[in-house]
Every structure is written in structure tokens, then in C-alpha cells.
């Protein structure tokens, strides 16, 4: 009956550092948040474009490989030496993580990162002043701050 | 089933992380998210809120018809349902079809909100689902009416919020629906969901 999150099998959550961009795309394929990190900070327009393109790949993934029923969609595409990983919630909100191909990444790390994004999004919905149907970009600094931690270099 | 309540009975809702601590390092945030326990709701407080919601809204909406109050309560439920379903559907696999979604409502959603599962689910396989709850949790402390008209009439104000809740949950999952409720006698309650065919 309790819905506490299952303790992860990953011993210590590690996220692939070197994330270039995290994008949150809403139900109607409207961008809710495009957050760039590191030296990609000045190329936001490019990531808007990338997120928009990735929506098609998400649809394609859903049409073809829906056997697993997993929310994690895996590697969607590789564009201009950037890997784009996708994740779609049951409420049709999509999360995208863009990582340069030069960064070694494990699937489990990307899944863990998506988990954090999903939790952050759920808490954003908990804000009564946030309209889930809004098509505006998300302005919440707390949400952005939580995503910021994903790109922080992992202390080993 | 339940006795008088000397202490707070609780409903555990999702265990999403509520950490407001500033994230200092990745592993700290990760640890907090994974280790936070279930969030608990004090049921008496919830009942008090629900009971008060009807009269308070009626008083606030001067000159409004009774239907306007019902509409407002349904919209309140809708908003809550939308947000709640995101939290509850987080760890669920992708839904395959409409029946899968309704079953989720009957089991996980109902369990989280009403502490039990729906007792009976009927469908005509053409978009109409009937959910029957023989011991509706929110009627637990209500008294009186035992005939169809009396019960539905008396409990109508308190049924619109759950209707909105269900409608909001289904809307969150991508289904436009119409949800109605009726009761043949406290504590029984039936919800009828009409899903627009063709998603």
C-alpha cells in the first residue's frame, strides 16, 4: 500500500557527468524546459531544435518497440556527435537527456538520471500554482536547481 | 470495520521526495530521494476537509446555483487527480490500452486514495465502465439514507469531488472522460466512466 520508492539496485546513484542538455517536453510536444549545462550554455536554440526533432524519434520508438512497456526509451538518435536518450511518462510528458558521444555512459546511469528528473517533475506538479496543462516554459527555480545537480561532476 | 478513532489513522501516499535541502552533491540528493519514507495523510483531517468543502463553497459562491458548487468541486477534484496520477503512475509500466488504465484506477489509484480496491468493475467494452465500491471510504462516517433517491440526493455534494478525481486521473493519462456517480445506500457507491472512443 505504501508508495515509497523502491530502493534502487544501483549502489550509489551515478549520473553521467558531461550532460549537455536536459529537455522536458509536454503532452502536446510543447517545450517545457530546455536546460543546458557547461560549455553548451550558449547554444540553447540548437537544443530547442534537437528536442523538437527528438519528438519524432519518440513517436517512432513507441510505435515500434512497445513490448517492454518500460518508461525508459533508450538511445533515440545520435545527431552531430550528441546522443539523445528519451523517457516518456504515462502522462505523455517526455524527458530528453543529451550527452556528447565522447562521454562514456551506461544505460543504468541514464535511467537513474531520468528517475531524478521524473521525481523533480512530480514535485513540480505538487505546486498548486503550476498548471499542468500550461504551454508556457517552466519557470520554477527549484525544479531547475534539482536538474542542475544531475550535471554536477560526481564525487567518487 | 473501523472503530472510533482515538489516534490518527493514516493513508500512505506516494513516497516521492520532498527534500528542500539545497542539493550539495549528486550523491546527497540521490540518497535523500531514495531514502525518504512514505508520505502520510491524516485521514480525520482529510474527512474534515471534505465535509467542510461543500458548505464552505456554497457560502463563498453567493447567489450561485447548487450546480455551480458541484461544478467547482468537480474541478477541484480534477486538478488534484491530474497531479496525483503523475505521482502514482510513476513506477507503473506503460499502459497498454484503456482497460489497463481503468484497472490501474481500480487498483493502485483507489488503494492510494481510498485505502481499498474497487469491488466490482463492469464494462460494455464500448467505452463505458462501471466501478462499484461497496464500502466507500469517504462515506465511512456518514449516516442515514438507504434508498437510491435519498442516498444519491444526500451524498451528491460529496460525490462530485471523487468524480473529478477520477476524471482528472484519466485526463492525466490522456483520456477524455465523463464521470458520474450514484449511491444506492451508504456506504455503497458506484462510479460510471464514459471514455470517448478513439483516443
TrEMBL record, chain A:
Q: Which GO terms describe its biological process?
A: endoplasmic reticulum to Golgi vesicle-mediated transport
Concerning its family, UniProt says: Belongs to the TRAPP small subunits family. Sedlin subfamily.
User: Which Pfam families does this UniProt record tie to the protein?
Assistant: Sedlin_N
What is the recorded name of this protein? Trafficking protein particle complex subunit 2-like protein
Q: Name one GO cellular component term.
A: cytoplasm
| InterPro entries according to UniProt | Longin-like_dom_sf (IPR011012), Sedlin (IPR006722), TRAPPC2L (IPR044760)
CDD domains named among the record's database cross-references: TRAPPC2L
What residue ranges are annotated as transmembrane?
A: none
TrEMBL record, chain B:
Organism encoding this protein: Allomyces macrogynus (strain ATCC 38327)
Domain of life assignment: Eukaryota
What family, per the record?
A: Belongs to the TRAPP small subunits family. BET3 subfamily.
Q: What is this protein called?
A: Trafficking protein particle complex subunit 6B
Entry GO terms, CC: cis-Golgi network; trans-Golgi network; TRAPP complex
Q: What is the lineage of its organism?
A: Eukaryota, Fungi, Fungi incertae sedis, Blastocladiomycota, Blastocladiomycetes
Q: Which GO terms describe its biological process?
A: endoplasmic reticulum to Golgi vesicle-mediated transport
Concerning Gene3D superfamilies, the annotation shows:
Trafficking protein particle complex subunit 3
SUPFAM superfamilies in alphabetical order: Ligand-binding domain in the NO signalling and Golgi transport
InterPro entries (UniProt xref)? NO_sig/Golgi_transp_ligand-bd, TRAPP_component, TRAPPC6/Trs33
Amino acid at each position: 500500500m505504501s508508495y515509497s520508492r523502491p530502493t534502487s539496485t544501483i549502489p550509489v546513484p551515478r549520473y553521467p557527468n558531461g550532460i549537455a542538455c536536459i529537455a522536458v517536453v509536454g503532452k502536446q510536444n510543447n517545450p517545457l524546459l530546455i536546460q543546458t549545462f557547461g560549455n553548451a550554455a550558449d547554444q540553447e536554440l540548437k537544443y530547442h531544435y534537437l528536442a523538437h526533432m527528438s519528438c519524432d524519434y519518440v513517436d517512432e520508438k513507441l510505435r515500434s518497440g512497445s513490448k517492454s512497456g518500460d518508461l525508459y526509451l533508450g538511445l533515440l538518435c545520435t545527431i552531430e556527435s550528441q546522443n539523445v536518450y528519451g523517457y516518456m511518462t504515462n502522462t505523455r510528458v517526455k524527458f530528453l537527456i543529451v550527452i556528447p558521444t565522447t562521454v562514456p555512459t551506461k544505460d543504468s546511469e541514464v535511467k537513474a538520471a531520468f528517475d531524478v528528473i521524473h521525481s523533480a517533475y512530480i514535485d513540480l506538479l505538487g505546486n498548486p500554482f503550476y498548471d499542468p496543462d500550461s504551454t508556457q516554459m517552466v519557470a520554477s527555480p527549484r525544479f531547475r536547481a534539482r536538474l542542475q545537480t544531475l550535471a554536477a561532476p560526481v564525487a567518487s | 470495520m473501523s472503530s472510533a478513532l482515538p489516534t490518527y489513522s493514516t493513508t500512505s501516499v506516494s513516497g516521492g521526495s520532498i527534500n528542500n535541502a539545497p542539493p550539495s552533491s549528486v550523491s546527497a540528493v540521490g540518497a535523500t530521494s531514495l531514502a525518504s519514507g512514505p508520505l502520510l495523510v491524516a485521514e480525520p483531517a482529510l474527512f474534515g476537509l471534505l465535509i467542510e468543502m461543500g458548505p464552505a463553497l456554497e457560502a463563498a459562491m453567493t447567489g450561485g446555483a447548487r450546480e455551480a458548487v458541484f461544478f467547482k468541486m468537480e474541478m477541484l477534484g480534477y486538478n488534484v487527480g491530474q497531479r496525483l496520477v503523475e505521482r502514482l503512475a510513476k513506477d507503473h509500466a506503460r499502459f497498454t490500452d484503456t482497460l489497463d488504465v481503468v484497472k490501474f484506477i481500480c487498483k493502485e489509484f483507489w488503494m492510494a486514495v481510498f485505502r481499498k480496491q474497487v469491488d466490482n468493475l463492469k464494462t460494455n467494452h464500448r467505452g463505458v465502465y462501471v466501478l462499484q465500491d461497496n464500502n466507500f471510504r469517504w462515506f465511512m462516517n456518514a449516516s442515514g439514507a438507504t434508498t437510491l433517491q435519498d442516498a444519491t440526493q444526500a451524498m451528491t455534494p460529496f460525490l462530485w469531488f471523487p468524480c473529478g478525481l477520477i476524471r482528472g486521473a484519466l485526463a492525466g493519462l490522456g483520456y477524455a472522460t465523463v464521470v458520474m456517480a450514484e449511491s444506492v445506500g451508504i456506504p455503497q457507491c458506484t462510479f460510471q466512466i464514459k471514455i470517448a472512443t478513439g483516443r
